[in-house]
Design a protein that fits this description.
The structure holds 2 protein chains of 2 kinds.
Chain A lengths: L7 E4 L9 E15 L5 E8 L11 E3 L4 E8 L5 E5 L7 E3 L4 E7 L4 E6 L6 H4 L3 E6 L5 E10 L1 H8 L13 E4 L16 E2 L5 E7 L5 E5 L4 E6 L9 E2 L1 E4 L4 E6 L5 E7 L10 E2 L4 E6 L1
Chain B lengths: L1 H17 L3 E14 L5 E8 L13 E4 L3 E8 L9 E3 L22 E7 L4 E6 L4 H7 L2 E7 L16 E10 L6 H4 L10 E2 L9 E4 L6 H4 L4 E5 L3 E7 L4 E5 L7 E5 L2 E8 L2 E4 L4 E6 L5 E10 L6 E14 L9 E6 L6 E20 L4 E20 L6 E9 L2 E10 L1
Parallel strand pairs in B: 1-4, 3-8, 9-13, 12-20
Antiparallel strand pairs in B: 1-2, 4-6, 5-7, 7-8, 9-11, 13-18, 14-17, 14-19, 15-16, 15-18, 19-20, 21-22, 22-23, 22-24, 24-25
Amino acid sequence: MLHKAFVCILTLHLFGWSHAAVVYDTVYINKGLITMVDGSNHDYYSFNATTTFETTNKRIEIGLGDSLYLAIVNTDAVVHGFDVTNTSSYSTNIPATDTVEVPMKFEDLGVYIFYDNANYPNFRYLGLGGMIVVDDFSGTQFYWNIKDHEGDWNDSLDAGWTVDWNDYYPDYFTINGYSNPLINDDPDARIVGSVGETMRIYISNTGEGIHSLHFHGYHLNILYSSKYPNHVGRSKDTFPIESMETLILELVPDKVGEYPVHDHNLVAVSGGNIYPNGMFLTMLIE
Amino acid sequence: MKNWFVVIVLFAGMQLHAQMDEEVLLIARNTGEKVVANGDTIRTMGFAFSLGENPDVPGPTLEFNEGDSVEIDLWNVSQGAPHTIHLHGLDVDQENDGVPHLSFDVPHMEHGYYKFKAPHAGTYLYHCHVVSSIHVQAGMYGLIIIHPPDGSKTTWDGGYPYDISMSLLMSEIDTIWHNDTILLHDHDPDVEVHEVELPVYDPQYYLVNGLSDGQIPEENMALNTSVGAVNYVRLINLGYKGNRVIFPAEFDAEIVASDGRPFPTVENSDTVYIYPGERYGVLGTMPAEGLNSITIEYFDLNTAELEDTQEVPIVTEGYVSTTELATNYELLVKPNPFENSFSIEADLKEKSEIEIVLLDLRGNIIDVIQKPKKMVGSVSIEYTNPTLASGVYLIQMRVNDEVRLNRKIIKN
């Protein structure tokens, strides 16, 4: 489950900095197509681990206090941007076919979104938004990067046309770039665990809309909220998450079973007139 | 031998049946009719207690006490797609969770039985989970309220006492989704993923407890309260929009719970944001007689644009001591707010055993002001406590061991 994606870690043992590490990593800005449940293809971008396009953005996991040196390789023919939410500004531009390395440091538990801030929000809307997870937790972890899409808008925006965001009405909804039932094949997304096991779910909303994730079967505790720190400690079954907000939830199941988790905006559990699609997956507790 | 086996099985079944504290029959129908605010009648689907009843939107509210063993008998009397009951937030086991491909569905003219033990006191929902995008919009939902084990007017066992409660269930209606072509969709119960027509959701009616606009005053929907009464307002969103609920500043709203669980820390806020599937519990008190309102805004989840506003009146008449609960007992506390001392004046028209206690807002007893004592007529009690921390407290009068009056007081 742990995909610590680093090239090199230098552990610092001096002066009590025994746990801080220096992490070097690379992401590639790639352009491709996202395929929706009805077979339609739409222009899409993604931060990937290699020059090969994948709809799922690369995820970066580091520990508390770690330094991150992230190289961003722009494989595209236009300028892209880079920034990270909830941090001091790491904003930079990456010229076409160029590479920029951004040094960052993360002291606190959290999920931070790295995203393309060029021509905002267009490139971020077109898929360029991933998560940096900062946590020392060694238990079972799951990751949901949720997003809404109005398919035709992807093509329009990528063609350079303008859109009126006040008319935005998404018709597809994804988790890590996939919808029900395919999302259940993603072991990083589908919760599989045991009764009494402590699990953490790291969630980012890199879409435009607000989503309201409802868990069947269990209440979960909010461990972290990027926008509402006062929500930490609440036990709930439904978790709203705004655009560019992140959450960390803790699940300790008290019974076995297979239960859905889904957006309770019930328009978002569909896609292309398919139900249940969109933001819908199941948990399996054994 | 075989006969004995049958007798034992029947006996065991009767025992199981007898263990149920609450049994509810809900009839699922797809022949409902609803009059919307402009006077038009639209077609709905919904739940009712009897065949002769129009399935209203929302469906009937179900109330239980924490710890009750409950069985809901869902009888589907509607041709077309099957139906289920999802017990939203009750954390029931998989079999009783109401998701068709993970538990069971209930076809036309069949019964399905949902069993659960009522968990934490709080606010929950039930709704059909068959093509839920359509069936919930069609009207197949309602409220479940779980009271504390003793059924008292308390937010939860050991929680906050209150005098008056009201539930505000927000949702919307897009009449296009109520056309037969949408409601009576094809459905193959043997597949998990269905192809259905889902029009762009663009509601015309924004509902509170099924009513909107002029229907709210026509049906006299209001929070009817008294000065000093502790009100507990349950907020629920089962629509596909966001809600921003704004209480009057003088209501001094305190958000104490969400999704059937107490908050670890009370949040003081006049504004409550509530999203699809969420529930909140809000305490508040009106300090003076008059007419106010709770404002409910409906905004789009994709654009954050405000789409509609509904107003639910707050009618504050008389003082808590003159409400029905307290016809024979009056209780005045003055001054309020106070510094170190206040006096309590009670007018007791009947000879009763009276106990007066000072509580914090979590319901913990801070001090006993008057030990249980038979009293009648005008009574005046002076109370001084210089060590009491600044904050909000309750004076609670118990008559013959029953909570009869709560007065909110403020220590400067």
